[in-house]
Amino acid sequence: MTRFFDGIDPIRYNPDAETDLAYRHYNPDEIVLGKRMEDQLRFAVAYWHSFAWEGGDPFGGRTFERPWYPQDSMKNAKLKADVAFEMFALLGQPFFCFHDADVRPEGDTFAENKRNLEEIVDYFGEKMEATGTKLLWGTANLFTHRRFMSGAATNPDPDVFAYSAATVKSCMDATQKLGGENYVLWGGREGYETLLNTDLVKERQQAGRFLQMVVDYAHKIGFNGTILIEPKPQEPSKHQYDYDVNTVYSFLKEFGLEGEVKMNIEQGHAILAGHSFEHELAMAAAFGILGSIDMNRNDYQSGWDTDQFPNNVPEVALAYYEILKMGGFTTGGTNFDSKLRRQSLDPADLIAGHAGAMDVCARGLKAAAAMLEDGGLETARAERYAGWDDAANKDMLESGTLDGIAERVLAEDINPQPRSGRQERLENYVNRFV
């Protein structure tokens, strides 16, 4: 034991608890729409924010003091893993997620990075077997190191493209070895700052070919999980190629990958793209490519990706409504891509942040399930579009022509009058459940 979490007991479901270190709504065994709550939500802890992030922001450096700092040796990487799995045991969540750079020190060469990753993966394997914690997904950090300042797959330097491909292969191998259920590609710098030095067509072709290679390799090694792309607008590149769900889907279609790749959608990224979280989830579900989610929230005044723990039950409920409506998660889950505020220094803060977020998600899930079972939203939606069930209108949409439709309008003296969208009434309906 590391003693990092000394004095903190495992977090249990206790609606009447007087401490903030308890679950008041998250009961893993409660049945929600025919499945255990744990199996509906499939919670995961993000290794990078919880253990690798040091508390810096754009205006200041490290605020946290952790016993595994500096993060530059395998000894400290293993200590960090010891603490991580102790926290997983306290929270009882079923999964975790990581980037390669979160879990191993940076070496002087790719070969050294590969050895370090392989060593920590073996260490993880032992701990996963002992604790039962599983890997929701793995990924590669292709954005932090200065070599990636101009992108990874979209870099103008072929050597960076090659280094990135080799890194992704090593991370896919690690994910496969640990039984990961997904592999995520997050193109943090797959974009550009200025057109003055950018070939848009070439970079898009490079990105498409890179993803085709990833899919081919997944088939080669028999990876049974899901390949996921995470849309990310604006930050850090001014113009990101993976801006939102619609943008990524058009990219997948262009390169023939819409049947191979799904999406990991983050609440904070949806907001940065000018959308709501439920909008992005609904779009992905409509395209058949909703795979997994990163759950967090942004500070709506700051205008950048603050990655705070979720605390807005109505927002979360609408998100899970879209997920449940499509049938729920398969290989995906709810990853807390969320971090403490840089003033929250104590180990107990790390536990409380996750426990509170899990309660918020549990409340949102139950509200979403109740709305879905009640059927009010779907009934209202069906009524609004009921006119399209008429045979003549179906025929108009399927085989109509402009001149033929114009003749019908004249012959039937069609003169439509606006009908209420009933938005306020539907908002009131939602509020009955949250």
Automatic annotation (TrEMBL):
GO molecular function, a single term: xylose isomerase activity
Protein name (database record): Xylose isomerase
Cofactor: Mg(2+)
Family per record: Belongs to the xylose isomerase family.
Keywords: Carbohydrate metabolism, Cytoplasm, Isomerase, Magnesium, Metal-binding, Xylose metabolism
Subunit structure: Homotetramer.
Enzyme class at the top of the EC tree: isomerase
The enzyme's E.C. designation: 5.3.1.5
Species this chain originates from: Tropicimonas isoalkanivorans
Entry annotated with the keyword Mitochondrion: no
Subcellular location: Cytoplasm
Binding site for Mg(2+) 1: 230, 266, 294, 337
Family matches, as NCBIfam families: PRK05474.1 (NF003998), xylose_isom_A (TIGR02630)
Gene Ontology CC terms: cytoplasm
SUPFAM superfamilies reported for this sequence: Xylose isomerase-like (SSF51658)
Co-factor binding details: Binds 2 magnesium ions per subunit.
Biological-process GO terms, alphabetical: D-xylose metabolic process
Catalytically driven reaction(s): alpha-D-xylose = alpha-D-xylulofuranose
Catalytic residues as annotated in Swiss-Prot or TrEMBL: 99, 102
Residues noted as binding Mg(2+) 2 in the record, renumbered to the chain: 266, 269, 305, 307
